[in-house]
């Protein structure tokens, strides 16, 4: 003891150096850990299979002391390292026991009441003041507790959050939104099993060239979604992969394709060929879509995939987990049909926007004014799909020589296409004028912005000629749309 007191300063300096040496040594050894456990420096099968590793879970507070060494050693000695964000609460605060804002993943998966959450706080080591503050925070954030979200929804939400730089502000409402989306997947499979029937056997290959345009479209956008997902996974852009998958399932398969093919299954002999093609396409979409989604939602995709029939020629795998992951199918790609469907969906959206909130369930007659033969041919080809998706009672194609239908609200899709919806009762001219005014402001703003850009100094010298030509075409198109809006306003004034 006497020696310690006399040499206290020296001992403290020695202990400090020992701590620094231990910290450096720990950082060095930990940095090598992902490599050495897989057999490095030998080029083992485990190293080539499992490195780079799947996840490096760490906090930003040790980013320099530990992770930086691991990153530098990994990049120098063997490949790349992926860092996922740190998970925070919905307000962006780091989860901390003292704040009482720690979210247990099990509570998100299984759900928990507010009373259950607060009981967990009471079992902790918070003092009375911290406990009351934490309880107030829980009451504000989870007044009804945490709803049951399931493993798949939590997993998908966390992966989709990875675009948020170095942190995830976890909002349980978003996780629960993906839980509700899982119901959409169930409904899609339930619809398919009813329409496919017990005796359905999928074909070994799809005869895409003989299919209706709506089937060609969904297969084309599916192939594009597969390509985007695979390239995003290879680039470690996991959020982009989830966005691509979600957009295809939600907005293209469920909202458009499944709704558009429902009339084919009304029993009419007229649709016999389209009905068969729709069955084959629906099966191909669900089989491919579930395999595409599987890494992100493994449990629900396994359950749903097991319910799908398999082709007789195929050697069925016991699990979706060991099935081949999808790859883009070049034979499905069809830019022409995708461009046509883009016009169709724009027209559907404009028609839907014309329906008054009070008549949301009412199906009214509708009209489309086509200003050139190409647009007229596209609308004619997809006439049934437009009527079905827009929920209108009929759809009549007009040319510029036809009179404007009476008592109709109007919307402009583009310079070559306008849509009309016949309203019940008197036309609200003020409301129609307001819609046209907003449309004029929107188009005028685009026109002014593009015109200013083209008039800027150096534009003609620096911009490629192809870009200048495209901008000139866009400017002419916007000018034509402004003229069409003026024409619609004049016709509306003439009715007063």
TrEMBL record:
GO MF entry, a single one: valine-tRNA ligase activity
Catalytic reaction list: tRNA(Val) + L-valine + ATP = L-valyl-tRNA(Val) + AMP + diphosphate
Spans annotated as Disordered: 435-472
Biased composition range(s): Polar residues: 446-455
Protein species of origin: Aegilops tauschii subsp. strangulata (Goatgrass)
Protein name: valine--tRNA ligase
Domain Methionyl/Valyl/Leucyl/Isoleucyl-tRNA synthetase anticodon-binding, first and last residues per copy: 216-365
UniProt superkingdom: Eukaryota
Biased composition (Basic and acidic residues): 435-445, 459-472
Valyl-tRNA synthetase tRNA-binding arm domain segment(s): 428-492
Domain Aminoacyl-tRNA synthetase class Ia: 20-171
Enzyme class: ligase
Transmembrane segments: 21-40, 60-83
GO CC terms in record: cytosol
EC number: 6.1.1.9
Listed GO biological process terms: valyl-tRNA aminoacylation
Alphabetized UniProt keyword annotations: Aminoacyl-tRNA synthetase, ATP-binding, Ligase, Membrane, Nucleotide-binding, Protein biosynthesis, Transmembrane, Transmembrane helix
CDD domains: Anticodon_Ia_Val
